[in-house]
Amino acid sequence: MKLRKAARVILIGAPGVGKGTQSARMLERYKELSSISSGDLLRDNVRNRTPLGIQAEHLMKTGALVPDSMILRLIQNTLLTRGWLTQPGGPKPLTLNFASPYGIQDTLIEHDNFFSNRLPPRKIADEFEYSDSPSASFILDGFPRTASQADKLDELIPINLVVNISTPTEIILDRICNRYIHQPSGRTYNLTFNKPKVEGKDDITGEPLTQREDDKPEVWKERLHRFEESSRSLLEHYDKMGILWTVTGNSSDEISPRLFKEFEKRFGRAGT
Ligand SMILES: *[C@@H]1O[C@H](CO)[C@@H](O)[C@H](O)[C@H]1NC(C)=O
Ligand SMILES: *[C@@H]1O[C@H](CO)[C@@H](O)[C@H](O)[C@H]1NC(C)=O
Ligand SMILES: *[C@@H]1O[C@H](CO)[C@@H](O)[C@H](O)[C@H]1NC(C)=O
């Protein structure tokens, strides 16, 4: 399936709803879509010793959080490097030059110096144009997590679809919290698909089964509750902008076809 314009997508979903699965399936199905992950960008920049990477590493070593402005700069750099953000008037950002002995790193350094030295931060959006070509399509992962981060991202590049992936809490708990283990032997049981013969007892020794801390419903309920609290303002931010779409399903296989259908309605090119 080919796209008729750029899709700039964010998926939001509680732990256990299979956000990673949906993302991987979309990247597989729509070849023009790529992944931009803030975590990967950070790791790549640290590994390549870019100025931003060095600063970020220093902060992380002292136990500080990497500030939003740095994450935004990483996203901005990768969009510039890919040519999905361009400067219409001013000095052209260096395009990727594989003949350069410095390669990508060279490009990032140029961009970095350029912004930190010459552009007042809030002007950035005015200075750039973004591409609406289908090949400039991406799923952004890891950022933003809050409404205020989303505000800042809006100034850089407009996201045009945010998917609220929703699975009833009971279903998530059922799926995740039904694993029991017989500690001494390591035998595992799955209450849906591989029940012990006697409830709560190992089939062979008759000894009691236990749950890993991570599989306990109370732990998951708390985790899901925290997610709901922390994602609310982000979801509302995009809802107000009219780009939020909610998909509900009990499993990834139920959600994917609905997501594909909606995505293709919005971005697909008929007959491809
Ligand atoms: C997102 O989905 C959840 C269900 O998981 C729902 O409760 C919430 O209202 C949705 N958010 C918005 C802004 O529509
Ligand atoms: C239980 O087994 C089913 C089928 O193999 C699987 O989908 C599910 O994830 C398993 N649950 C756990 C907690 O391992
Ligand atoms: C999803 O789960 C709910 C609650 O268990 C159930 O009522 C509903 O029928 C399920 N939907 C499908 C399509 O299986």
In short:
With 272 residues, the chain is of the alpha/beta class. The chain is built from 10 helices and 9 strands.
User: What's the SSE pattern?
Assistant: EHEHHHEHHEEHEHEEHEH
Strand content: 5-15%
Q: Count the DSSP helices.
A: 10
Given helix and strand content, the structural type is alpha/beta
Distance between the termini: 5 Å
CATH topology of the domain at 8-167 and 248-267: Rossmann fold
Runs with pLDDT <50, length 5+? Answer: 93-125
Give the total of beta strands.
9
Gross morphology is: globular
> For the CA atoms, what is the radius of gyration?
23 Å
The second-level CATH architecture of the domain at 8-167 and 248-267 is: 3-Layer(aba) Sandwich
Bound molecules: 2-acetamido-2-deoxy-beta-D-glucopyranose
Biggest pleated sheet: 5 strands, parallel
Tell me the name of the CATH class of the domain at 8-167 and 248-267.
Answer: Alpha Beta
Measured as a percent range, the helix fraction is 40-55%
Q: Could you report the average pLDDT, rounded to the nearest whole number?
A: 87
The strand line-up of the biggest sheet is 2-5-1-6-9
